[in-house]
Amino acid sequence: MSRILVTSMPFAGHVGPTAGLAAELIARGHEVVAYTGAKYVPRFTALGAQGRPFVRAQDFDDADLAATFPAVGNGKGLRSGRANVELILLGTAAGQAADIRAIVEESGAAGRPIELIAADQLALGSAFAAEALGLPWATVVVTALTLASRHLPPSGTRLLPATGPVGRLRDAALRSLVAGVSRRMLAPQVNRVRAEAGLPQRVNGSLDDAYSPQLVLAQGVPGLDYPRPDLPAHVHYVGRLAPAPQPGALLPAWWPELAAARAQGRPVVHVTQGTLDVDPDDLLRPTIAALTGRAPLVVATTGGAAESVLEPVPDNVRVARFLPHDQLLPLVDVVVTNGGWGGTLAAVQAGVPLVVAGATLDKPETGRRVAWSGVGVDLRTGSPSGARIGRAVAQVLTDPGFRRRAGELGAALTAAGGVRAAADLVERLLVARTSDGAA
């Protein structure tokens, strides 16, 4: 069996899918070394992986980014988004590359060489290290696929694909514009990191450099992504890389009320802001206000904050810090979310339609795909009014087309194979690279 390095940025939404893949590789007899922030190393070691924390890379707590990176602030707005890219993604990349080189050298010296890196696509140092070391490398896509395509508008513009000649001209012009801005603003930063990793400069250096040219494991299925006629052959949709179950999850005393509500024909609405953008005024409180006194039973999760942050709550609201999605979602009729990709995939796989209200990082892209695919409503803002949320929830509850489409794409996500399919592809790459080496 092989020794594989799995890397992940220390964000909960990144650790889930990479830990899911790690667990499957370990179950197949591979030896896994997991590299991530110190906060999440125990998540991997509990699976049987050998944990390695950030050392040269600046570590941080995803629950309080501003403590380490003050310029990120509250995570909202263009300035914060730019700081996220410059300070967190690119700013930690050189340190990551150095850490990974040290891990690989240590493993080789011990006679147990790393044979492949399976890397979170936003752990940018992994890509630079793999390229510099000449190691086979698979990208684990933790967001909606953002790989550039000549058939789509640039990722981040929040636009749906064009449907006519004028729109296609628009998208082409935007691709050219974004490429020019990237050359001026992003390429110099990318090239500084490449230089520190001992790599040659690239005129068009961009975040697409983080995608492996050998294997890309894209979470999702074609129906949840826009048509990509130019999708490279090494990019594979693998469904959802479900997080490895965490045993011992405690359920609240009110848990039986969910099944009872469903048995009575009463809808259950789950509202979540994930674990990164957790200001309750953005989505939790407006949703609660919108559904107060109405039929649905509302289940709100705070993403780690104390339940008291939402008190007092109406009689039809139940609150918890976290709840296990695999047990919760089969009891839910609608999910109201800020658009984390992992949580969105979990809802769709369970056949649950969504209302998305996201404005930061990759979340607007998630919202657009949810609306485009027909599995829910995109509110196109991260701080919607209670009235807009109430109307959207009512729309999803009364139009059976949303649930029908979620069921179709949920079945497709399951059929795509998840961690089993991803591990098969990783093993195939290992065999191919071994054969190439032998030849």
UniProtKB/TrEMBL annotation:
Positions of the Erythromycin biosynthesis protein CIII-like C-terminal domain: 298-411
Pfam families found in the cross-reference section: EryCIII-like_C
Origin superkingdom: Bacteria
InterPro entries found in the cross-reference section: EryCIII-like_C, Glycosyltransferase_28, UDP_glucos_trans
Gene3D superfamilies referenced in this protein's UniProt entry, alphabetically: Glycogen Phosphorylase B (3.40.50.2000)
Protein name per Swiss-Prot or TrEMBL: Glycosyltransferase
Lineage of the organism: Bacteria, Bacillati, Actinomycetota, Actinomycetes, Micromonosporales
